[in-house]
Amino acid sequence: MGKDTEKLKRAIIKCFPKLANDISFEITSPQTPNYNCIAWAYNYNDRWMWPAPCATGGLDGVCYWPDDVTKTPDVDSFIEAFRKKGYEICDNADFDERFQKIALYVKPGTKECTHAARQLRNSFWTSKLGRENDIQHGTPYTIEGNNYGVVYCIMSRVF
Question: What separation, in Å, do the N-terminal and C-terminal C-alpha atoms of the chain show?
């Protein structure tokens, strides 16, 4: 692992301090502005996904959002969007090879959605950090904190 990667890991840990003790934490992609965390959790890596407006995202300032889904930053809109892909709220983040899981995050004390993470087939979780890198982390809870807030719910669908 190169010196630049170690420097980047330290910068990410500074933003997400719980990653310092996460032995599964890895940087898994180069930096790219082509997609955001919601799109990544939705299994897209070629667009930004946000309800609207999309002033800070998307290469062309346009964001994708599923038809007939409410366009608000309220987590209920994100739940509705993931239901379009077959996800339903479940009771835990534990790995089960039959299901793909996602976590939705909110600012503490609100229902404003801030982030989404997706569980991988290797049981670890993956997050896209804004316009930056993708990372792998051991649980959805190791990226809770000042930047993304807290896990609001876990959703799952049959693989």
Answer: 33
| Cis amide bond preceding 53, omega within 30 | yes
In order of 93, 137, 138, the CA distances from 21 in angstroms are 19, 10, 10
CA 80 to chain centre: 16
Q: What is the pLDDT of residue 62?
A: 76
Tell me the backbone φ, ψ of residue 47, rounded to 5 degrees: -160, 160
Give mean pLDDT, residues 110-133: 97
Q: What's the DSSP call for residue 17?
A: G
Asked whether 81 and 69 are in contact (CB, 8 A), the reply is: yes
Contacts of 102 (CB under 8 A, 6+ apart): 41, 82, 87, 116, 117, 118, 119, 154, 155, 156
> Which one, of 38, 138, 155, lies nearest residue 101 by Cα?
155
Give the global pTM: 0.94
pLDDT tops 60 at residue 71: yes
Reduced DSSP (H G I as helix, E B as strand, rest coil) percent helix, strand, coil of the chain, to 5: 25, 25, 50
pLDDT at res. 58 = 55
pLDDT at site 40: 98
